[in-house]
């Protein structure tokens, strides 16, 4: 009898679909950028592109943390509030020098993230509920220390901390480089370290992960701590850029972060995702917002309507490609 | 006898919510032996394993471990979304000089390692894309590669094809030669007697026998497990599966030329009321897919499904309304909702019928649930107990109850006895018999040929998504089935490069 062991060849079309599945968001990004470039003359100007990258970098820092959280099968709703809180703490701390201005938001937001993680991992409470509570908590704390937002802390213009947000290399702001370094680091941690594997295993099949010896609880604590810390960092960078701790920012930002992570191909149910995808997602959402700004006639209230519709189209397209 | 125990358990007691799972159990595993752990459903095997591995802390007694223990479970406990190689090396990945995971080496070592288990799949593809049997092999390879002194195998062969079972037993022997002690949990007597040195029998949480296996006649072993006398068993057998069903002449279910690419390519099956029709064939021959195509869970490219002569629209809802119910193979992912109670799991499918205007009557629910718990002999502390807390066999009965209370005319059963123990298996088989006698049409899928031969009135043999033969009466023998299945190997092995048939 004949023994046949030749593996079945993957048909070309299937291979092509696989590429599209993985790179769906990237393809959309390339298309949107190409169209914008052709239609809006100002879109491609160096100034606009630099501004685009800078605006994207703050969201990217938060979204990197969110990617880890979502891959474990969780969600972190507190990042928008922590972002604003981080900014105010940085602005307040800047009077004591660079180090305090940077460390204070990281530590406070990191600790809130740690508490999120401990509650989620140890008490088995739903991440949605726990982080919703800290969303309210952080926003409340923020209002309390700013006299209900009436007191806006300014950062002295000559402070070294301002440089962190406003300094540039070849016209590109420091935050862009910080976000880029964090993205690369995030990718390496996710794919090339034991912790990264634990993140995937936790979100992919939690019960199995426990039996496989994965420290599931520890992994969860770590990702929420990371997410909180990164939200605080994004807030600090924003404060440095704006030279003040603005209290009204970051409302609903957690939803933007979740949206870009999901657009980037990370499964909302956990177990699968990439940092590169998240970065592409950030690019997509920021380009869309930028283009809407270019259409000067559009009432600003319609901006989120348009970007909402656009996001929906992107997600539907991805779903269709995935078939 | 020289003793060098790797695991020693003395006087262990474990109680869950007032129910005793283990009572004063002693258990010793000697270095290098293959130790069979047997017992009925709910006898305490899983609990004992979890005590051995440290997942459960005993209420009383002591556990001494003199080595590293690896466990592979009956249901594959790996991460389907992660790659095969990532699963294999999770927690002990090869590293580069910089302490980062060396993915190229991980893939290469994984491919190398799995070749020894007869797996040639792409190790960088997600584990979930592999067949269940292959996933089980990966789990085993993982357990073995962890440099364990003890490997615990909980029903490792329950989802394997005969060829894969041979590979697995070969691996078990290799481990044995390497001096690794093995605890082997299985309900398959043949396997136990082929490879095991010693046996421990648990019944109702108590160790009723420990000793060399070779000296123990099979019937004695069964009687120890069931707690019935040898005479009783000799008289009635362990199962009375397949005692004369009365089959009507007109089929109640007719599936005509079903095509659902890629797995089902023109299958016709008919079942008469009171008849049990078996679907035989190898893994990947399209058995499950045929059943799913019948009930409308897989899209049809062509073909029709008729119930009592009337065509049924191809949706699950319409099929269920017409009286078809299906018990899915993988109860963990396709059936049981672990966090709901037994009551909720049972009435789930029947809810629409149980109420008016969307409000269901609780007392009617309770009545139905009580009836089925009693009738199917489901062992529960109360109908409100979470299904997750039940043993495999009882979970399966809960699922069976769920479909029965929709009062189906046709029941599609996909591996109804997979992974449940001898006693529960016999009970499930008996239930299938009973149901057929009451006039239900049953389509039974099983990888166990004996179960099909004993239980079915007629067999439809599938290979590569097509009917390879239909057997009934005198031709309902092992030889005829194998011949029908084997025809594939000689006929068209050349056209199916790399498919599941590999004629070794």
How would you summarize this macromolecular structure in one to three sentences?
Chain A contains 13 helices and 2 strands, in the order H-H-H-H-H-H-E-E-H-H-H-H-H-H-H.
Features:
heterodimer, A: 323 residues, mainly alpha, two-stranded antiparallel sheet, 13 helices, 2 strands, 1% strand, disordered N terminus, B: 504 residues, alpha/beta, Rossmann fold, 3 domains, six-stranded mixed beta sheet, 21 strands, disordered C terminus
Secondary-structure element string of chain A: HHHHHHEEHHHHHHH
Using DSSP, what is the number of strands of chain A? 2
Q: Report the major sheet of chain B.
A: 6 strands, mixed
Helix content of chain A: over 70%
Q: What is the CATH domain class of the largest domain in chain B?
A: Alpha Beta
Distance between the termini of chain B: 40 Å
Structural class of chain A: mainly alpha
Number of separate domains of chain B? 3
* DSSP, total strands of chain B: 21
Say what oligomer this is. Answer: heterodimer
Largest interface: A-B, 30 and 29 residues
- The biggest beta sheet of chain A, please? 2 strands, antiparallel
> How many angstroms separate the termini of chain A?
38 Å
Describe this protein's structure.
The complex is a heterodimer of chains A (323) and B (504). Chain A has 323 residues and is mostly helical. Chain A has one domain. Chain A has 13 helices and 2 strands, in the order ααααααββααααααα. A two-stranded antiparallel sheet of chain A has the order 1-2. In chain A, helix 7 packs across helix 8 (194-204). The model of chain A is unreliable at 1-15 (pLDDT under 50). Chain B has 504 residues and is α/β, with parallel strands linked by helices. Chain B has 3 domains: 5-236, Rossmann fold, CATH 3.40.50; 248-323 and 409-416 and 440-504, Rossmann fold (3-Layer(aba) Sandwich); 329-407, no CATH class. Chain B has 18 helices and 21 strands. Chain B starts with a strand and ends in a 12-residue tail after the last helix. Mean pLDDT of chain B is 81; it is low at 488-504. The A-B interface holds A 1-8, 188, 191-194, 196-197, 200-201, 203-205, 207-209, 211-214, 267, 271-272 and B 55, 71, 73, 77-82, 86, 90-91, 93, 100-101, 103, 120, 122, 489-490, 493-494, 496-499, 502-504.
């Amino acid at each position: 009898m004949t023994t046949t062991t030749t593996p079945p060849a993957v048909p070309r079309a299937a291979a092509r679909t696989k590429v599209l599945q993985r790179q769906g968001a990237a393809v959309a990004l390339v298309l949107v950028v190409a169209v914008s470039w052709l239609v809006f003359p100002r879109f491609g100007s160096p100034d606009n592109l630099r501004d685009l990258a800078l605006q994207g970098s703050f969201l990217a820092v938060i979204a990197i943390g969110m990617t880890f959280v979502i891959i474990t099968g969780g969600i972190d709703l507190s990042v928008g509030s922590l972002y604003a809180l981080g900014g105010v703490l940085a602005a307040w701390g800047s009077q004591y020098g660079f180090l305090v201005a940077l460390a204070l938001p990281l530590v406070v937001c990191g600790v809130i993230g740690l508490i999120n993680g401990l509650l989620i991992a140890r008490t088995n409470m739903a991440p949605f509920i726990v982080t919703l509570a800290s969303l309210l908590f952080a926003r409340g704390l923020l209002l309390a220390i700013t006299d209900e937002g009436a007191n806006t802390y300014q950062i002295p213009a000559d402070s070294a901390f301002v440089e962190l947000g406003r300094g540039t290399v070849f016209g590109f702001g420091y935050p862009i480089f910080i976000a880029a370094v964090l993205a690369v680091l995030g990718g390496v941690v996710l794919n090339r370290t034991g912790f990264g594997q634990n993140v995937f295993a936790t979100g992919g099949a939690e019960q199995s992960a426990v039996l496989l010896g994965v420290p599931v609880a520890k992994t969860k604590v770590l990702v929420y701590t990371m997410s909180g810390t990164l939200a605080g960092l994004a807030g600090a960078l924003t404060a440095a850029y704006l030279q003040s701790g603005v209290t009204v920012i970051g409302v609903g930002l957690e939803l933007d972060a979740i949206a870009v992570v999901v657009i980037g191909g990370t499964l909302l149910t956990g177990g699968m995702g990439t940092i590169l995808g998240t970065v592409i997602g950030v690019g997509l959402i920021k380009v869309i917002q930028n283009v809407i700004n270019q259409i000067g006639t559009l009432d600003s209230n319609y901006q989120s309507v348009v970007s909402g519709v656009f996001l929906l189209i992107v997600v539907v397209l991805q779903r269709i490609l995935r078939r | 006898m020289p003793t060098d125990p790797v695991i020693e358990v003395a006087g262990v007691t474990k109680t869950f919510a007032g129910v005793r799972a283990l009572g004063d159990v002693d258990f010793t595993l000697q270095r290098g032996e293959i130790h069979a752990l047997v017992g009925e459903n709910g006898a305490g095997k899983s609990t004992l394993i979890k005590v051995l591995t440290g997942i459960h802390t005993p209420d009383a007694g002591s556990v001494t471990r003199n080595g590293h223990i690896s466990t592979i479970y009956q249901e594959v406990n790996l991460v389907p979304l992660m790659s095969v190689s990532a699963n294999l090396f999770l927690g002990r990945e090869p590293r580069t000089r910089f302490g980062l995971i060396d993915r190229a080496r991980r893939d290469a070592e994984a491919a190398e390692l799995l070749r020894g288990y007869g797996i040639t799949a792409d190790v960088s593809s997600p584990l979930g894309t592999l067949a269940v049997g292959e996933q089980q092999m990966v789990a085993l390879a993982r357990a073995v590669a962890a440099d364990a002194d003890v490997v615990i195998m909980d029903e490792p062969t329950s989802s394997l094809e005969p060829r894969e079972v041979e590979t697995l037993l070969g691996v078990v022997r290799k481990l044995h030669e390497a001096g690794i002690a093995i605890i082997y949990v299985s309900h398959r007597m043949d396997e136990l007697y082929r490879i095991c040195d010693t046996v421990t029998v648990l019944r109702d949480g108590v160790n009723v026998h420990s000793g060399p296996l070779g000296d123990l006649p099979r019937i004695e072993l069964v009687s120890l497990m069931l707690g019935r006398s040898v005479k009783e068993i000799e008289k009635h057998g362990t199962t009375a599966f397949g005692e004369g069903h009365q089959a009507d002449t007109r089929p109640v279910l007719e599936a005509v030329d079903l095509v659902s690419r890629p797995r089902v390519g023109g299958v016709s099956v008919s079942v008469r009321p009171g008849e049990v029709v078996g679907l035989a064939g190898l893994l990947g021959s399209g058995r499950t897919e045929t059943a799913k195509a019948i009930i409308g869970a897989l899209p049809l490219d062509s073909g029709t499904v008729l119930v009592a002569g009337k065509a049924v629209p191809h949706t699950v809802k319409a099929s269920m309304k017409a009286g078809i119910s299906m018990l899915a193979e993988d109860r963990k992912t396709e059936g049981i909702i672990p966090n709901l109670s037994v009551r909720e799991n049972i009435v789930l499918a029947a809810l629409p019928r149980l109420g008016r205007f969307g409000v269901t009557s609780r007392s009617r629910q309770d009545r139905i649930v009580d009836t089925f718990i009693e009738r199917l002999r489901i062992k529960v502390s109360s109908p409100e107990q979470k299904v997750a807390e039940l043993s495999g066999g009882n979970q399966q009965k809960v699922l069976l109850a769920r479909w029965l209370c929709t009062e189906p005319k046709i029941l599609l059963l996909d591996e109804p006895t997979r992974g449940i123990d001898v006693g529960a298996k016999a009970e499930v088989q008996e239930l299938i018999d009973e149901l057929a006698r009451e006039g239900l049409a049953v389509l039974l899928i099983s990888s166990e040929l004996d179960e099909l031969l004993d239980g079915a009135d007629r067999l439809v043999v599938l290979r590569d998504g097509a009917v390879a033969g239909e057997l009934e009466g005198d031709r309902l023998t092992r030889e005829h089935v194998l011949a029908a299945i084997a025809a594939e190997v000689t006929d068209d092995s050349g056209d199916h490069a790399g498919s599941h048939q590999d004629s070794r």
